[in-house]
Design a protein that fits this description.
Layout: H1 2-14, E1 16-19, H2 24-27, H3 29-36, E2 39-51, E3 58-70, E4 76-82, H4 87-106, E5 117-125, H5 136-143, H6 154-157, E6 163-171, H7 178-195, E7 201-207, E8 210-218, E9 221-223, H8 227-233, H9 236-247
Parallel strand pairs: 1-3, 6-7
Antiparallel strand pairs: 2-3, 3-4, 5-6, 7-8, 8-9
Length: 251
Amino acid sequence: MKTLFLLAFVVILSGCTIEIDEDYPKEYGTYFDSLLGEWEVVQSHHDIYREKYSPLDSNVVFDTWDIEYIDSDGGVQQLHLDNSRDISFLLDEHLDDIFTEKFEEEIGSIPYERESVIVDVVLIDSNAGGSDEMKKDHFFETYQDAFHFNDLNLKNLVENTPYYLDIDYEFKDDEFTKEEQVKIVEEKEKEILSKYPKLNLNIEIESGYDKSFQHYYIAGEKVFLDPKEVAEEMHSEYVYQRMLRKSLSLE
């Protein structure tokens, strides 16, 4: 009896094994045909990690795949899949990997790149956190333009999708007057919107907690935030994100 108790105690301490058997290339293959064009699995692995934050330490067995496809420029791109993570995060991660290169190709570098001016350009999903709760068909229908990786450009990336371009300027010293700062940002704003007239865009000048210049666009149309909602949310960008989701019937 004592031996059985000790054996059970050892099993409890050692935790258990959780095996994830979802085959992503098979399950999402039809969607990949549309998003990637011709593609193939070039590498697959059976991996394991230890989950330390569950009541019992668990060994999680999962699969990974590397998929290769050809982009619109004829280059070979690689998409990494991991069935221990949600497909929405994996596709968003891949999008982040290739976004900066595409942005510079299509928009060019942001002007006044010097120590006195910091410019952050980020692609943001206004529906982040909600995409993993969508049913599969609804998810791919909503994001099909953004994840059209074999023909990716800024036009299909941020038109009719929950994504928006977020551009923040920070002027570090007095090299430029307030008027000059606004002129610099407005010129870039005009240039971007002339090339992509249906863009979802937030462009702003930051100075600590003071945003002296902040413009929001949904599908190329300038929108104005309700001051009452901004005061309630304590963050104007949350209000903008909600407006963008509503425009796509996601809220």
